[in-house]
Each structure stands twice: as C-alpha cells, then as structure tokens.
Amino acid sequence: MPKSPTPFQFQKFSLAHDQSAHKIGTDSLALAGWVEASNPNAILDFGSGSGLLSIIMAQRFTEASIVGLEIDKASWQQSCENAKSCPWSKRIQFHHQDLRDWNTERRYDLIISNPPYFSESLLAPEKRRAQARSASAETFLLWMQKLRDLLSADGSLALVLPPLQWESYQDQFREMELYPRRMALVHHHESAEASRVLIQLSKQASSLEKEKLILYASAQSHIRHPQYQILVQDFMLPQNG
C-alpha cells in the first residue's frame, strides 16, 4: 500500500493533503504565485481541495477575506483543519458545497481555481481523484458561467488548464463575455512543449499579456527554474543545490 503524503511544509505554514482528492502540485503552486490582483477585498477559491490556494491568497493579499468551495467532503474537512492552523485563519472560510447549488449575494474581486476539466486521456484511475480532476464539458461551462456571475465589475477569474482545453473553450468564454487579459504558457523545462496554461480573465476586453513560464532547469532536474522560483519565493521553502 502506498504511503500517504506527509504534510507539505511552506515558509509560514504546513499543509496536510493526505485526505484531499487533489494533492499539492506545481499547477496550483504556479497559479498561486502568478495571479495578479489589486488590493482585493473578497477572493473565492473554487474547488479548494486541501486549501492550498486559499491559504496562499491569504498570505499574499493581507486585506482580503477568502472563501473556498469544495464538493468532496474529506477534502473540505482537511482544508478546514489546515486553515485553523495557519496564521491567517480568521480571514479564511471553507464551504462543503456544489457551486451550482451555492447562492450568495457577495461578488468577488478575484476568483481563483485549478478546476476539474474534461479529457479522456487525463482521467485519473482512482474514483475520488478522477472526480477532482475531470468534469464533462457541459458541467465545466456551467461552472464558468456561475463564476463569471460571481465576479465584481472589475474582478478577474484566474485558472490553470491544459492547452487543448483552453483552446476548445475560448469561443465559449467570449460568448460569456469573459476576456483573457493575462496568459502564461507553462513548460516543464526549456525544450518541453507547453503542458498547462495559466489564464486570467475579466469582464472587460483588453490587450492580452502573454508569456512563457519554465518550471525546472532540465527534464531530469527538480531544481526550480529562475522564472518559477521568483513566483514561489515568498511562500515555498528554498531549495538545496
């Protein structure tokens, strides 16, 4: 039987993720460091898992209140425990709720998500992890419309997606009047194809800022590339070597 992952140690907090359907990975870590917002008061973390994005948002944006929404009960329970033990617990709240059934009058200056996305080639074999990582295209688009409706007038929606999913959904985002303003193509190393897209959308059309983000020094190395290191240097522990 494989060992449960040990708590992940950050500079200012420790985060357990052994009960979460969605384990800590570079997708969420890169998104957490890359996203930009100007003094947000209210942040929503959709599909909050173990609470990673919510807790880092609380560290980065010191005046914001953060709400996490998670449908998986064990993940939600673990996120609540993680929040209690972090330095910003008073500003973080998690709800065990399906986004489609969640009603609130509040509007959010920033919505951040490493969302479930649909791809048969990416379906995970274990049931809870598969649920955390996959969704039908129809369900995904219903979520995006609901998130768009929850944005404040000047708010933004930040996502991480596989490139094929981003390409296939661009027209639907435009129909929802969600327009990309920042994009980063994420490469594992310098010569690798892009494996993820970080995208930040808003309700106002604007020129698109596009960049390339490299995670590691080489295909075999786990040493962070300087680009990635800059993004995570305020919350991840420094590396040796």
From TrEMBL:
**Ranges for domain Methyltransferase small:** 22-120
| UniProt keyword annotations, A-Z | Methyltransferase, S-adenosyl-L-methionine, Transferase
Q: Which InterPro entries match?
A: DNA_methylase_N6_adenine_CS, rRNA_Ade_Mease_Trfase_CS, SAM-dependent_MTases_sf, Small_mtfrase_dom, tRNA_Adenine-N(6)_MTase
Recorded GO MF terms: nucleic acid binding; rRNA (adenine-N6,N6-)-dimethyltransferase activity
Which Pfam family would be a valid example here?
Answer: MTS
Q: Which domain of life is it from?
A: Bacteria
Q: Which PANTHER family match?
A: TRNA1(VAL) (ADENINE(37)-N6)-METHYLTRANSFERASE (PTHR47739:SF1)
> What is the protein name given in its UniProt record?
Methyltransferase
Provide the species name.
Croceimicrobium hydrocarbonivorans
